[in-house]
Design a protein that fits this description.
heterodimer; A: alpha+beta; 5-stranded mixed sheet; 3-stranded antiparallel sheet; 8 strands; globular; B: alpha/beta; 5'-nucleotidase,  domain 2; 6-stranded mixed sheet
């Protein structure tokens, strides 16, 4: 836990921002979902989002999404300054509708995946990923 | 599947022994006469399979004192559930008489008096006697080591874990999983594991670059025992790169990975496993949650959080066994495995009373040989203590108060931070403090005692972060340590609040003033997970401080106010 002044201030600053950010961040994420779905209802189930409970490194967090029969899957990091992470598109010949990647998370937040299914309906899954300064377990 | 009657057959050695001994019968002689090795080992064999579980030994080769926590708070669904029950409530729950051997072994009050009566616990030579005796009865018993074995002592540090590897190889475990072992650095861990004569398991040990299972650590191993096909699946500590320095083992990634665990359980069942045993370093509450999510596990041998429970905890059809730490206990679990399933079990948590159990001579010789080159250095007496020195507990322990005092005075700091680790034996009032004793509570591969500036605001962030690792209501977000210890700093904590609002009333104790969020404070600490941390070794800082004091006295710490328990 030796921290440079710069490091300390950076983390300190992010903590201040946390208090004010969630409402705006959620709104931003919601905007992305609305743009993706065109305002249609979003259901649950039929989509799996796998992410670590606590990120080992917030700069590169492995995630995996899968939704059998999906044509597109949108991934959002709702607590990032820019929530949109990726949209995976699957052609009709795709053997499976699954993708894995690594994303950067600015802080503890929900990662959300929304899939557009073949019949035009939408389903959503989310996972809470904690980003911690760590260091005192054992 | 498991009847209440079977459950009641679980027993603990000590609880069946002395009956109503009551207070005042603690004379050492009386204790020794009343307790015999045969009583401790007494066990009516059951079924066709025996498991022997040892865990979190933390390189403690020799007998020691170890005080269990008086404060161990559960949150969320685990509030008021074992292992979050301590003291007289714990004894009442399990029908343990005050002053009995079980009282001494499993709870914290009257620790000093009981320790003087019952003597030291643990010692790998005594554990060897117990294990050999079980094997004499059940030659094909499986010995499973839950990890945190190659860490925690003077000799372990100076041999980079080799002393423990050599000693454990004599005990011949069948499989092991890991946590602090990785703080030896991945190069050293790989070197040892490549030469291990038993399975190094971890279904959640992944290779970080591609996030694929690490080849060196298979997820499981099959054993044929008592006519049954047994699959032992390993689960390493999930949060190693967060709670410990990830830069020391960058090639590896961990995590809970319960989906992968389910895949592994289904795989071993498909391959014909009659019994599925999870050798886990998750910590108890994480294991409970995992048992409620992953189906098909019969037995979880639980480590990491250092809990010792006289009976297994049942979650659905899974039994969870907690076997303590620091060599204080060995668990024996006998199982009736028939027709591809576990039909019943009998369990005993065997406390290793060092004065009662005869050391195994072969193991004693191996231990002495490992220690001999370091004996002169280790046995140096640095000071004495007037107070009981212990560590375990959610908020503070007298050992940590002493370490924080050392950091503040030796490093000229306003505030000290000491990690909330759960290892480290206790020292009784009146005992000498040797160099070995200091290493037993500080030894690690990243023990530099740093000194840095932190703003009041950042101190708050640090405390909130650690508090959430302990008190997040979802066990999957807990890391299994205790709260960071503070010196020179008081605070209130409401454990039921969300992260960011648990900690209030931060106070600089030297002035009694409230901590100013924008002001900068001089902070000394140790065990930083950041690469490049500089400073003298913590064991030298503590040794210098104790040497100057001569005799140390640690006054009760009332600087943390806990709300919402």
């Amino acid at each position: 836990m030796r921290l440079t002044r710069r490091h300390a201030m950076a983390i300190g600053a992010s903590a201040v921002v946390v208090a004010g950010l969630p409402i705006r961040a959620l709104a931003a994420g919601d905007d992305d979902i609305t743009a993706f779905t065109g305002g249609a209802d979003v259901g649950e189930g039929g989509i799996t989002l796998t992410a670590p409970e606590i990120a080992e490194n917030g700069n590169t967090v492995p995630i995996e999404v899968s939704a059998e029969g999906a044509s597109e899957i949108l991934v959002l990091a709702t607590g990032n300054p820019v929530p949109a992470v990726a949209t995976f598109k699957f052609g009709p010949l795709a053997a499976s509708q699954a993708a894995s990647t690594r994303i950067r998370l600015a802080k503890t937040q929900d990662v959300v995946a929304v899939a557009k299914m073949a019949d035009g309906s939408f389903v959503k899954a989310s996972a809470s990923v904690k980003v911690t300064i760590g260091g005192c377990g054992g | 599947m498991i009847s209440r009657r079977d459950f009641l057959q679980t027993s603990m050695a000590a609880s069946a022994l002395l009956g109503a001994s009551g207070f005042g019968n603690w004379g050492r002689l009386a204790a020794q006469q009343a307790l015999t090795q045969d009583q401790l080992l007494e066990f009516e064999s059951y079924g066709n399979v025996s498991l022997i579980h040892v865990t979190d030994i933390h390189a403690q080769l020799k007998p020691l004192y170890f005080r269990e926590p008086s404060v161990n708070i559960g949150v969320g669904d685990n509030r008021g559930q074992v292992p979050h029950i301590t003291g007289s409530d714990f004894r009442k729950l399990y029908g343990i008489n005050d002053g009995s051997p079980s009282h001494y072994a499993l709870s914290s009050d009257d620790f000093t008096a009981l320790a003087q009566g019952y003597g030291r616990v643990g010692g790998l030579d005594r554990m060897a006697t117990v294990i050999n005796s079980i094997r004499a009865e059940r030659p094909d018993a499986l010995l499973l080591d839950g990890g945190d074995t190659w860490h925690g002592s003077y000799t372990c540090y100076h041999t980079a874990g080799q002393d423990m590897v050599n000693v454990m190889n004599v005990l011949k475990p069948d499989a092991m999983t890991f946590h602090w072992e990785f703080t030896l650095g991945s190069e050293r861990v790989n070197e040892i594991v490549e030469g291990l004569p038993f399975a190094a398991l971890g279904q959640n040990i992944f290779e970080s670059e591609w996030d694929e299972p690490a080849e060196l650590f298979p997820p499981y191993k099959f054993f044929e025992r008592g006519g049954a096909k047994i699959a032992v699946i390993g689960q390493a500590f999930p949060y190693m790169p967060i709670a410990n320095p990830g830069w020391m083992f960058p090639e590896y990634a961990f995590g809970i990975r319960d989906e992968h665990m389910q895949v592994m359980v289904d795989e071993v069942r498909a391959k014909g496993a009659d019994l599925v045993v999870l050798l886990s370093h998750n910590g108890f509450d994480v294991d409970k949650k995992m048992a409620s999510i992953v189906t098909g596990v019969d037995v979880i041998l639980s480590g990491h959080t250092h809990d010792a429970l006289p009976e297994p905890v049942l979650v659905g059809d899974t039994i969870i066994v907690a076997s303590g730490s620091n060599g204080k206990f060995v668990s024996r679990v006998d199982l009736d495995v028939r027709d591809g399933r576990m039909m019943g079990f009998r369990h005993k948590l065997i406390p290793i009373f060092s004065d009662v159990i005869t050391p195994d001579p072969e193991m004693a010789a191996v231990i002495d040989a490992e220690r001999a080159p370091y004996e002169d250095q280790m046995s140096a007496v640095i000071g004495q203590t007037d107070s009981l020195l212990y560590r375990r507990g959610n908020f503070n322990g007298t050992w940590d108060d002493l370490i924080c005092d050392a950091l503040i005075s030796e490093r000229e700091a306003d505030i000290a931070l000491s990690p909330g680790v759960r290892w480290g034996p206790s020292i009784l009032p009146g005992q000498d403090i040797t160099r070995e004793d200091i290493w037993n509570v500080t030894s690690m591969t990243y023990g530099a005692a740093y000194r840095t500036e932190m703003t009041g605001e950042f101190l708050h962030v640090v405390l909130e972060d650690v508090a959430d690792n302990l008190f997040n209501p979802d066990p999957y977000y807990q890391q299994g340590g205790d709260m960071v210890r503070t010196g020179g700093l008081g605070y209130s904590i409401d454990i039921n609040k969300p992260q960011g609002s648990r900690i209030t009333n931060l106070t600089l104790l030297s002035t009694g003033e409230a901590i100013d969020a924008s002001k900068t404070y001089q902070v000394a600490g140790w065990a930083s997970v950041n690469e490049g941390t500089e400073g003298p070794a913590i064991w030298d800082v503590v040794e210098n401080h104790i040497a100057k004091q001569g005799t140390v006295t640690v006054t009760p710490n009332n600087n943390v106010q806990v709300i919402g328990t």
